[in-house]
Amino acid sequence: MSNVVVVGGGPAGIRAACMLAAHRLRPVLLDEARNVGGQGYRAPSPGLRLDMDALMGGEAAKYHALQAAFASIRDQIEYRPGTLVWAIEGKTLHVATDEGSSTVSFDALILATGAMDRIMPLPGWTLPGVFALGGAQVSLKDQGCFIGRRVAFCGSSPLLNLAALQYRKLGADVVAVCDTTPLGAKVRAAPQLAAAPRTMMRGISYLTSLMRAGTPMLHGVTLLRIEGKSRVEAIIVRDCRGRERRFACDAVALGYGLKPEAQLAELAGAEMRFDATSRLWLPKIDADGRAGRSLYLAGDSVVIGGADAAEASGELAARAVLSDLGIVHARSVARGLRRRVFRLRRFQRALARAFVWPANRVKDLSDDVALCRCENVSVGEIRRAMDQALGPIEVNRVKAITRCGMGRCQGRVCGPALQELVASHAGIPIEAAGRLRVQAPVKPIPLSVARTLAE
Amino acid sequence: MTRLIADVAVLGGGLIGSWTAYFLARRGKRVVLIEKGVVGAQSSGTNFGNLRLQGRFPGQYPLSLRAQDLWERLEDLIGDSCEFDATGHLYCAFDEAERDKIDHYAEVSESYGIRIEHLDRAQLKRRFPWLGRKVIAATYSARDATANPRLVTPAVARVAKSLGVTVVEHCAVREVRKSGDTFHVDTDTDLQVECGHVVNAAGAWALEFAERFGETAPLFPAGPPQFVTEPFPYFITPSVQTVDGSVIARQIPRGNVILAGYPRTAADPILNRAPVPPVKTLAAMECLAEVVPALRSCHVIRVWSGIEGYLPDMLPVIGQSETTPGLIHAFGFCGHGFQIGPGVGLCLSEIIVDGHTETPLSPFAIGRFQQEIEVSDKFKREFDAVRKTP
Amino acid sequence: MPRMGAASMDERPGLFVRAVDRDGGSIEFTIDGSPMTARAGDSLLAAILTNASLLRRLEFGGEPRAGFCLMGACQDCWVWLDDGRHVRACTTAAVAGLGVRTTPPALAEIRNV
After folding, report:
1. Which of A313, A330, A418, B160 has the greatest number of C-beta atoms within 10 Å?
2. Which PANTHER family does the protein's record reference (chain B) (predicted)?
3. What is the ipTM of this complex?
């Protein structure tokens, strides 16, 4: 029997596993988390008195359906939670668990490794109390905790209003929602967003609910700085009329949409291509998710499409595996799925116009702003390194000279902003600035995992 | 077409090429340094950063000591210390046979005036209490040092440029020919150089230039598996090496521990790939945890390698071409070119300007490959796949 | 759904605020030797940040850090434990008796791992 391995226990990975299990392939599902569901649909941690239906509203049914789908295949798959895939070599995955390191071989590999927040730094963003927007939701859903009592939601993302509303519902004081995209851009994107009327209406309802509750809703703002001595005390913004406004708060949720966690895809040999809409390098796939021989990619780890696209693309990738292994030939079903994935991902592209990544902000960052949290490398250090004779103008060379992106997170957080900084400072197109190359391990592994090498 | 008339064209903007250009410029020569990518990006920038004196090939000590003297004056020479640190070097033995080996290495080092301390288990426990029990003896050389290889070559090239060297990046040499006393260097850009001397310092890519002039060497591209850990409290002051090659490690004051290990892996200079097989990373992690047990809870955050040129006798090619006057080779540094780099640059500048150098370089002549050469034990042991020697 | 009271506690030491209650008992642990209380089921990050406003001091410069992405990606929330281990707080469960350090322990303590 063919050995199919799925990495990632979110919507894409679970739907892929379901499809494979339905054909009695007994796939291996490796998930770094201890519980399935991914960042969006994970069950709350034990004992939390969290009413997920109330919290998730219209999305609750999907959450329950996904958890139920997993439960129904639990004994038809080999599920290994708490398992980090840290390297890929040929058809072998190197995995690390609390017990040590071992290998898992595969005939076909589906990577569904999800996404994380994309961040543009601003002065004060490393202060305790500033968290990624997605993280602010995770802390609520997974831990039942607000990131602070008085929270400002800042950046530009469809999740901004949703997260703010969830916080409000549960009793947090939402001091402001500061969207850096002007309202006009949203209006201009509306015709394309209308392709998914329900999603658009839901977005508008979040907005109106927050406005009714009296939450200051700002569009087209410039985030100037976050203030505080040893933790967040306020965020200062310039509103669309040029007025400086200060919102006292003890936490800031910051995010500009999501970026794929594509590190494993790259290690597995996927070709990375520059995507002009997102201004990110994304793995190249065909319409079904094929990224190379025996390599399939699904969900937000390829291109941001949201949870619905993730579920559909997971199923689609699994169908491609089944078809390539000669197990099924039902192409008509795949065609429907393919259309659905295409439509949902196209919608996300329209969203990218309504929630704009502020590429130009990087030019205005003052030299003392930290760009790389891990290695504490400032914007000024990067500019100075580039300004020297024979200075680097490519991100990997900038990394080699300045250590930006060289730390524990391996450029996950600073990467997108570093690309923008290098491109703008060198006066070259962003695709010419390159992307930070991935090296194993994709996340830190302790020396002690090597002890069980003999396995 | 940009035609440059120069005294010397240096092919390859690595450590060797950059130092050579630097010293030539200081002697008033007009130099063009041509690099196919950017300066210091290949093995010059990806190596471990060891400035080790212990355990070198005996015939290399004059060159090596000359180089160490330059390293120790790095800040005076180029205005930047590039994290040069006189860390000392601890050469560790796991058993009596290895102890004999390091004692023998020490004898050679001492004969060249290097001060070596011989430390037994009890002394090691006092001086370096973090060493694992597996280490039964070690020799320590205080003069050995380390520097940051990512910074050095660009810094040297920058100063060379300020001294008048024309540094050309993203320019690959297509053709080198000689007519009369003049070399003609053609590139894939509009640059052409005419010059009296050519220095072939093209690293793992050097062979094609040697072969154009009827000379060759059994160059084998490979890279060591390396990794770096997260920042950890700083306690490993010397660089630490085990005689069996399983651990070559150092900690920088920022806290990161850097490791280079064996066996080396074949690399691909055409595709520019130097893979690091995960099993080698795991094996090296296990070895490091035995030598420095306190690091067991420390996390590895990144692996890398680089493409280095190796030769079967584990000695570089340094010196004048035996077919073509004016052509000088310096390549195939077998993973230990970093320490001798500035010394090689100085010697090559002397050969070009003065016609000779006082530093003995005869063991490194390219002509040695015309005879059967002895394959080094290291070459047999430290690679996955050893290319058959001709 | 239970809600937090409206009374603000501006001087509270913790960054995180519990939005909902948790079944199960409380657990005792320490931060830099000071006794703290969290709830069984908490992540180590939530356990620390409901009590304190930082997780650790940055190795480079010593500024306070409290994590960032909260989903195991940014690697900003690594904390030291008294037993010499070094763990990522957002993906580690809080366990009774843990001793958390915001700065690295002395080498002698690490060596006892």
Report:
1. A313
2. FAD-DEPENDENT OXIDOREDUCTASE DOMAIN-CONTAINING PROTEIN 1, SARCOSINE DEHYDROGENASE-RELATED
3. 0.95
Residue C8, pLDDT above cutoff 70 = no
Check: CB of residue A437 under 8 Å from CB of residue B300: no
**What are the tens digits of pLDDT across the range A167-218?**
999 999 999 999 999 999 988 988 888 888 888 888 888 889 998 989 999 9
How far from chain centre, in Å, is Cα A305?
10
Written as six digits, the tokens of B48 are: 């471990």
List chain C residues with CB under 8 Å of B296: 113
Q: Domain spanning A361-433 has what CATH number?
A: 1.10.10.1100
Q: Is C1 on the interface with B (CB under 8 A)?
A: no
Neighbours of chain C (3+ CB pairs under 8 A): A, B
Instruction: Count chain A–chain C contacts defined by CB atoms under 8 A.
Output: 165
Contact of C60 with chain B, judged by CB distance below 8 Å, is answered with: yes
All domains in chain C, ordered by first residue: 26-107 (3.10.20.440)
Phi, psi of B193 (to 5 degrees): -125, 135
Domains annotated for chain B, with CATH where assigned, are: 2-49+150-217+311-375 (3.50.50.60), 89-142+225-305 (3.30.9.10)
Q: What's the pLDDT band for A300 if we cut at 50, 70, 90? A: very high
Please calculate the CA angle A247-A253-A256 and round it to the nearest 5 degrees. Answer: 115
The pLDDT tens digits of the residues spanning B110-134 come to 999 999 999 999 999 999 999 999 9
- Could you tell me the pTM of the whole model? 0.95
- Taking alpha carbons only, the member of A373, A375, A371 closest to residue A421 is A371
Contacts of B167 in chain A (CB under 8 A): 390
Query: Does the beta carbon of B256 lie under 8 angstroms from any beta carbon of chain C?
Result: no
- pLDDT band per the 50, 70, 90 thresholds, residue A452: low
What would the DSSP string read from start to end of B15-67? Answer: HHHHHHHHHHHHTT--EEEE-SS-TT-SHHHHS--EE--TT--GGGHHHHHHH
Distances (CA, A) of A228 to A129, A130, A222, A233, C28: 10, 11, 19, 5, 30
